[in-house]
Amino acid sequence: MLYPWLQALWQNWQLLLGQGRLHHAILLLAAKGSGREVLAKQLAQTVLCQNCDSEPCGMCHSCQLFAAKTHPDFHFVAPLQEGKQIGVDIIRQCNRWAVETSQLGGQRVIMIDHADALGEAAANALLKTLEEPPSGCQFILTAQSLDNMLPTINSRCNKWRLSMPNEQETRRWVEKQIMQTTKLEAVRLNSGAPLATLQFIEQGQDIRHGKLVEVFSAFVQSPFSGIYDVAALCTSEGNISLKWLSYFLVDCIKCQQGVSSCFVHSESLDKVQAVAATANPAVLLAQVRKVNELYRQLETHSGLNEELLIVEWLTGFINHG
Length: 321
Fold this sequence. Notes:
Blueprint: H1 7-19, E1 25-29, H2 36-48, H3 61-67, E2 74-77, H4 88-99, E3 108-112, H5 120-131, E4 137-143, H6 151-156, E5 158-161, H7 167-178, H8 184-189, H9 194-202, H10 205-219, H11 227-237, H12 240-256, H13 269-278, H14 281-300, H15 306-319
Parallel strand pairs: 1-4, 1-5, 2-3, 3-4
């Protein structure tokens, strides 16, 4: 069963499937936590289904193999770890799968999740197959954005953007799943993506985020005490905590500039206003840039002393406070 916000795009694909006009390479652009993998796999199962053209029947041998995750003509590729690139070797394997004969006598489907994580060599290896697609092979690529994708890959695909429901719709959907009220803050911290918001709350990140904001907002005001408390909370939560602090600092900058709405931290506005009233605007701006650089650094390079680097960033508030 597809999530409600996936239905409109799915109906467009069904129309093309029914008319036999689906492009050989689909690129689905959607936020993390949007359910894009669910939609992409629905398409894959439909393409492979032996009974129906526009939706999976769920009953045929192909659908049963797909449900059991043992379909010999469905090949799924993704980074081995979040934040890592997809290497050239697995893409060369994709190219071999693309030209193989279907084991069930039907279509072959190659799904590349996080296609924006293709390294340059991998993207170039894929390009030739997309340019000269083998008969009976469907490519389905998913990505968060086009920013990190080779333009040549983009131009060979039929691009589709998945729209997120509005904030209130996401909030209502999440509340229905967990049977409790949800802060708008939780929705905004997850870019309005319903599944990401749901996971955020179910894993208790909303509580830990609230604690971090409380300790951090106290630290960035004179006398700047609690630096190691902030660093410890960031380290235990992981890199995502740096994104949370970046959002908080941007809210403080907005407040200083007289913005009266569109705050991510809508339910922590008292803390945003307290920091905005005392902090140097130039320091806030510099620290936002530095925390975003630190986030990218920690995402890209493993083995760094995370806590030491976070403490070093936090001292920027003290030295310029």
